[in-house]
Design brief:
Layout lengths: L2 E11 L2 E10 L2 E6 L8 E4 L4 E4 L1 E6 L12 H11 L1 E6 L10 H14 L3 E7 L12 H7 L3 E3 L8 H14 L3 E3 L4 H4 L4 E2 L2 H6 L3 E2 L2 H17 L3 E3 L5 H12 L4 E5 L1 H5 L21 H12 L5 E2 L14 H4 L10 H10 L6 H16 L15 E5 L4 E2 L18 E2 L2 E7 L2 E5 L3
Parallel strand pairs: 1-4, 6-7, 7-8, 8-9, 9-10, 10-13, 11-12, 13-14, 14-15
Antiparallel strand pairs: 1-2, 2-3, 5-16, 16-19, 17-18, 19-20
Helix pairs in contact: 4-7, 7-8, 8-10
The structure holds N-carbamoyl-L-aspartate and zinc ion (ZN) (2 copies).
Length: about 425
């Protein structure tokens, strides 16, 4: 089964691209030239669309086992393919939590069976995500855990975090932190700021994130672990990571598209589509996370794709679940808002959505279009505008405030190991 992609644009550097034909066979790119005359079973005319190595997302929630009504591994990975992603790292806030080898192997097998893209699984730092006793991280690593996290919950006790870091450091695996000091959250539902006051809603102090981050950076420094900050959202957190990097702490960080594009001033009504954890912060925080991304303090963009059912997003900020979806809109929003506007180059965007994640997490995924690469590829139409609509999502979750936004960069096709896993309807 050979596939020939004609007239694709590949990135040379910055925003410079080159038109090529690409031949895929046996799961790899086997030829690449200005024009290829080979015959193939399938020929796809890219019409000048951008061909990139498949995107990588180190932070998704696919909800199985335990919450299949929100998303399944099948629907989540179909959504990933529609977003142009070919490798994702799935979080462990599942039921049962993959804190034991048995629970881990169960979800790992299902990822492999149902996944339309490569799914790497996080092992849980502690049982039930809330307990203080650290899981057998060595056994989880042997079973194939890509890294460890308790995402969904912050690790409350320093001694738990320290032991987890010491073990993860020995294993050479990243430790990924959802930062939330519960003693400072106190039932908040949105950022503690002017908008929460106006709407009469309980606020979440930025300190709930940054105070725990400061603690963790000291522990990371002491242990030498690769420590990765999930969904970084405040200006203080950016400053702390910048300082820690300068001091030689082995720290990386991700930011979500929504913390780059939205802030609390845009929450003008009690609409739970804007409810997520961490909450949307102020315009100053938003500027700081963008500056941090541009200067390399923040390494990558991760969606924190968090699907919920329609009824779970009812009841306004107080009643609704935390979290929004993102895997089908991330590249499109980032391309439209940052590359098309000249704030960043295409090369930077691909570093943030592919290369830096691969390098940081030591993933076996391609970051350059070349002969011999594993054919994990995405094809993006940068020419035509598109309005994001709820009914086009392959994810079960329709919970995103970006519905109605106009974007460029819709995915035309996605390949995993040379297999077509997504193709846009004409
Ligand atoms: N981000 C969220 O608001 N929700 C996530 C959990 C998490 O990422 O902390 C979820 O699992 O729904
Ligand atoms: Zn989280
Ligand atoms: Zn998450």
């Amino acid at each position: 089964m050979a596939v020939l992609i004609k007239n694709a644009r590949i990135l040379i550097r910055d925003n410079q691209t080159q038109l090529v034909d690409v031949l895929i066979e046996g799961g790899r790119v086997v030829a690449l030239a200005e024009t290829l005359q080979e015959t193939a079973d399938t020929v796809i005319n890219a019409d000048g669309a951008l061909l990139t190595p498949g995107l990588v997302d180190v932070h998704v929630h696919f909800r199985e086992p335990g919450f299949a009504y929100k998303e399944t591994i099948l629907t989540g990975s179909q959504a990933a393919a529609r977003g142009g992603f070919t490798t994702v790292l799935a979080m462990p806030n599942l039921n049962p939590v993959p804190a034991t080898v048995e629970a881990f192997k169960f979800v790992q097998a299902k990822n492999l069976e149902d996944g339309q893209v490569h799914i790497e699984q996080y092992g849980a730092i502690s049982a039930e995500l809330t307990s203080v006793e650290v899981s057998d991280l060595t056994a989880l690593a042997e079973a194939g855990a890509i890294a460890f996290s308790n995402d969904g919950k912050g690790v409350q006790k320093a001694s738990t975090m320290l032991l987890a870091m010491q073990t993860a450091a020995k294993l050479g695996k990243p430790l990924v932190a959802h930062l939330e000091d519960e003693s400072l959250v106190k039932g908040g539902v949105m950022n503690a700021g002017t908008q929460a006051q106006k709407l009469g809603l309980p606020g979440i102090e930025p300190l709930a994130e940054s105070a725990q981050l400061a603690r963790d950076l000291m522990l990371a420094y002491a242990t030498g672990v690769h420590y990765h900050v999930a969904h970084l959202s405040t200006k203080e957190s950016v400053a702390l990571v910048r300082l820690a990097k300068a001091q030689g702490v082995n720290v990386t960080a991700e930011v979500s598209p929504h913390h780059l594009l939205l802030d609390e001033s845009m929450i003008t009504a009690d609409n739970a589509l804007f409810k997520m954890n961490p909450p949307l912060r102020t315009a100053t925080d938003r500027a700081a996370v963008l500056a941090g991304l541009l200067d390399g303090t923040i390494d990558m963009i991760a969606t924190d794709h968090a699907p919920h059912s329609e009824s779970e997003k009812q009841g306004g900020f107080v009643g609704a679940a935390f979290g929004i979806t993102g895997i089908e809109t991330s590249f499109q929003l980032m391309y439209t808002k940052f590359v098309k506007t000249g704030i960043a180059t295409l090369e930077q965007l691909l570093n943030w959505m592919n290369r830096n994640a691969i390098d940081s997490f030591n993933l076996n995924a391609p970051s350059q279009i070349m002969v011999g690469m594993i054919a994990d590829l995405a094809l993006f139409d940068l020419e035509h505008a598109h309005e994001i609509k709820a009914d086009e999502f392959l994810s079960k979750g329709k919970n995103t405030p970006f519905i109605g936004s106009e974007v460029y960069g819709m995915t035309k096709a996605t390949f995993v190991n040379g297999q077509l896993v997504y193709q846009a309807k004409k």
